[in-house]
Write a structure and sequence with these properties.
The structure is a single chain. The model is unreliable at 8-18 (pLDDT under 50). By secondary structure, the chain is of the alpha/beta class. Helix content is 36%, strand content 15%. Helix 1 (31-59) runs parallel beside helix 4. It has a 4-stranded parallel sheet with strand order 2-1-3-6, sandwiched between helices. The protein has a two-stranded antiparallel sheet with strand order 4-5.
Length: 206
């Protein structure tokens, strides 16, 4: 069970095995931005859904750590300090430090740009009419070469409304997918890459 005020994961024998598992997934979000956007009641609902997701991962043999980037209590056990949840560069540095301490296989960002901001980068394509692009690539990189990702990183976006229903439904959906997946296996992909991803999963017996 996760204390949604702090991000600290508490376990009991009848709840989860996460305390005995290596951290396979690092879950990143912002307490302040979730509360400000959705209010306390919806924040608590989001936290409950994340609790269920973490428990489901544990039942599949995957440990997960939830970290609020702006919560001192959440970061205390890692010897790290909270950062500005609106500063993408500071969040990347924090993820880098957590990556060194936890060595997760997967990193999951919960929330869209208003919760955990994208990096605003020069458009590497150049001639498509956009001078800048919103990107998570720096979060997926361990250095400044953001075009070469080194982490398996995904994001569950929310929408622009103040209603948390969309985000709650996404967390429910990924929880169901973990329950249906074979033990110790699940994957992320954009829908546009679905066929390519399926081909890779088939080869790796995913």
């Amino acid at each position: 069970m996760t204390d949604r005020r702090t991000g600290t994961v508490y376990q009991s024998n009848n709840l989860s095995l996460s305390q005995y598992l290596k951290t396979s997934m690092l879950i990143i979000t912002s307490r302040k931005n979730l509360e400000n956007k959705y209010g306390q009641a919806s924040f608590d609902q989001i936290g409950t859904k994340i609790d269920v997701y973490i428990k489901t991962l544990a039942n599949a043999g995957l440990g997960a750590a939830l970290v609020y980037v702006d919560s001192a209590d959440s970061l205390k056990e890692y010897g790290l300090s909270p950062v500005d949840p609106g500063n993408a560069s500071d969040i990347k540095k924090l993820i880098d430090e957590l990556d060194k301490k936890l060595s997760p296989i997967y990193t999951l960002i919960i929330g869209g740009h208003s919760i955990i901001p994208f990096h605003i980068l020069p458009n590497p394509c150049g001639n498509d009419g956009d001078t800048e692009v919103n990107s998570d690539s720096p979060y997926a990189s361990r250095d400044d070469e953001f075009l070469i990702p080194e982490r398996i990183l995904a994001r569950l976006p929310d929408d622009s409304s103040g209603d948390a229903s969309f985000l709650l439904s996404l967390i429910e959906n990924i929880t169901v997918r973990v329950k249906k997946a074979r033990r110790n296996s699940f994957g992320y992909s954009a829908s546009v890459w679905e066929k390519a991803s399926e081909a890779v999963y088939d080869v790796t017996e995913y």
